Each structure stands twice: as structure tokens, then as C-alpha cells.
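Need a sequence for this fold. Nothing fancy.
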């Protein structure tokens, strides 16, 4: 089914676009991804304050949503045009305030990847979730002790520490202990707020 959509550009001009919303269409998939991204982005800052659990190593929120796309460059341009999302070389950076400390800024990365990417391997799924964590070293030790599959070693970058884990259903997860101040310096003024 094709639907007519009206939007107003930055100069106040009304434009009409037609969108294909047939089940399985590119537009329907994009709407699903937008909805999931918005839900995750909106909730990411609230997760930190709502998690009731140990003060030790744990997940503190969502750090990113990564998914395969037929044309990542074109898809980023489409989101920028239709939703005003400022994009970067990786996708778009969503900015939020930490629930435990509203002065502290956190980030969620939205990234379309090529269909040919091997970054999600050994998972065969077309997506990967990045989880923000606290105490990554201890968390990895606990995961290994419980028999979970950790696919690599902790890698350290200026913006945080990363490691990948497989869940029981074959989903590859990226765990990230962030250093958000680096992103504040790199992307200030170019994030989705």
C-alpha cells in the first residue's frame, strides 16, 4: 500500500512524498527501526535510575542499536532528510541525561551496517545491541565462570572498553563501559536530543 505523507522543510515549504507501506517493504522496516530506536533512545536514560540490582558489575542501559541495511549511506541520508537526524560516519548519536546524575550526558549510537558486514558474526541475526555496563572486567569474569560465550578480549579505546558475548539464542551482544566525555567533545551540537 502506498500512502501520501506531507512534511514541512526547513524553509516552511510543504512537500508531499509517497511511501510504500506494504508488509516487508523498506519503508515498513524503516518505520519499525525508527520506533525501536526512539523507544530505546527515550528509555536509555531512564534505565540507569530504574535498575534495581547489585551495585557491582551490571548493565546500566542501552549504548547502541546496530542493524544490517541494503544501503547504509542512503538510509542515513533518508533519516536525516525525513526526521532531521544529524548523522555521522557511523549513523547517528542520541544524547540523553543519566538518570542517577542528570548533569551527566550519555550516548546511544544508531548505526546501519552493510548487509555484508561480519561485525555481527558469529551471530546470523541482522542486528546487534550494545549494552552500557559498569565493571566490565568483573562482568566478563562472571560471564565466563557461568559458561557464557565471550567471543573476544576486552578492547580499550579512548571512548571506553568493549567486549562481545553470545546470548543463549545466538544473538551477539556488545558490552561497553563508556567514557562519554569523549563523545561530548567529538559530537557536541551534532547529536539527536
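Here you go.
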Amino acid at each position: 500500500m502506498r500512502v501520501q505523507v506531507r512534511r514541512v522543510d526547513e524553509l516552511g515549504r510543504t512537500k508531499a512524498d509517497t511511501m510504500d507501506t506494504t508488509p516487508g517493504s523498506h519503508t515498513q522496516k524503516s518505520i519499525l527501526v525508527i520506533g525501536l530506536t526512539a523507544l530505546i533512545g527515550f528509555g536509555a536514560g531512564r534505565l540507569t535510575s530504574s535498575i534495581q540490582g547489585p551495585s557491582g558489575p551490571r548493565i546500566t542501559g542501552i549504548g547502541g542499536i546496530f542493524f544490517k541495511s541494503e544501503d547504509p549511506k542512503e538510509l542515513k541520508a533518508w533519516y536525516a532528510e525525513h526526521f532531521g537526524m544529524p548523522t555521522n560516519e557511523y549513523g547517528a548519536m542520541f544524547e540523553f541525561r543519566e538518570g542517577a546524575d542528570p548533569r551527566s550526558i550519555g550516548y546511544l549510537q544508531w548505526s546501519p551496517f552493510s548487509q555484508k558486514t561480519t561485525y555481527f558474526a558469529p551471530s546470523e541475526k541482522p542486528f546487534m545491541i550494545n549494552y552500557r555496563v559498569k565493571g566490565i572486567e568483573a562482568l566478563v569474569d562472571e560471564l565466563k565462570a557461568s559458561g557464557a560465550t565471550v567471543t573476544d578480549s576486552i578492547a580499550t579505546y579512548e571512548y571506553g572498553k568493549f567486549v562481545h558475548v553470545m546470548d543463549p539464542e545466538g544473538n551477539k551482544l556488545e558490552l561497553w563501559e563508556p567514557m562519554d566525555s569523549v563523545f561530548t567533545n567529538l559530537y557536541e551540537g551534532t547529536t539527536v536530543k
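For context: The first strand starts at residue 2 and ends at 8.
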